[in-house]
Amino acid sequence: MTDETPNTATETNIRHHQEKVGIVTSTKMQKTIVVEVRRRVPHPVYKRIVTKRSKFMAHDEHGKAHEGDMVRIVESRPLSKNKRWSLKEVIRAASTGA
User: Fold this and answer.
1) In the CATH hierarchy, which top-level class contains the domain 18-92?
2) How much is the pTM?
3) Which residues contact 83 (CB under 8 A, 6 or more apart)?
């Protein structure tokens, strides 16, 4: 019984941060990107599928993301007044119209 207690204690210490996938809409700030996340939900009254969008400011330390890229952001500690997310990975780079 004492062998199981440390396992459950370590499992409760694991923090699961929320992740979101969206498109980068702005990279004009230093080390900050703006990510637009879209989701499709049914309207509460009319039951029609409606697209809702939210914009999140995310920390991009190395400047890997560019406008139009699809990225995954993860919840983090507050980094500034509006930044509570960090860039985890670039899923798909934007296609350049060359």
Assistant:
1) mainly beta
2) 0.78
3) 32, 57, 58, 59
What would the 3-class secondary structure string for the chain be? CCCHHHHHHHHHHCCCCCEEEEEEEEEEECCEEEEEEEEEEECCCCCCEEEEEEEEEEECCCCCCCCCCEEEEEECCCCCCCEEEEEEEEEECCCCCC
Largest CA distance in the chain: 65
Model confidence band, residue 17 (pLDDT cutoffs 50, 70, 90): confident
Q: b/e string for 42-71 if b means 16 or more Cβ within 10 A?
A: eeeeeeeeeeeeeebbbbbeeeebeeebbb
Q: Residue 24 carries which side chain, given as an amino acid letter? A: V
Token pair recorded at residue 66: 């560019």
Give the pLDDT band (50/70/90) at residue 95: confident
Nearest to 60 by CA among 90, 40, 82: 90
